[in-house]
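User: Show me a protein chain along with its predicted structure.
Assistant: Here is one chain, sequence first, then structure tokens.
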Amino acid sequence: MRKIVFALMAMSLMTVNFVNAQDNETKEESKSNEFKRWQVRLRAVGVAPDESAKIGIIGGDVAISNALIPELDFTYFFTEHFAAELILGTAKHDVKAINTAAGDVNLGSVWLLPPTLTAQYHFYTSDQKVFKPYIGAGVNYTLFYNVKSGDVAGVDYDNALGYAAQVGFDLMLDDTFFINLDVKRLFLSTDVTVDASNLAPGLSIPAEVDINPWLIGVGVGMKF
């Protein structure tokens, strides 16, 4: 009789252990499923250049207009804390040479395409459900295209490699959708050559232009 009782007790303990193990495994699997490695955001971004220039021959400075653009970005999480983000957007800016020996000169407009890749650190864990801040740093390569000259015969911009710094946060609406606020600073310089031969025969003006824009964005995103 004792053997039967001990056998029943042993089977009961094994059953309890098995149920507990299954329950723990289910919880771990559920927690793992909450860790979504991809997210995509759509932002409205204000682009505000912090510009300056060294202009040869005629001296002066540069003025570059602000812009409001849509921006799309994709983020991949290697872990819950470390991620990489690819940022895509393009902006049109009006450009002027100001306070030169020839007065203010309209240099027309140019489009900038600065794809930017940042490495990010996210401070939150999956237990923090709503406020999820992050910082980032990375590189960008800016393409200048669709250049339209103003008062001069032509303007040539060199494509340029720059750097980026980033801070922001996601405000979760549920497990999938969120609101995002993001601020970036691009450290970007380019060499510019202005063909001013229509103003003076043979006149070519070199310039070193620091654009260094602030990018302030707000948008929505989705994890998947």
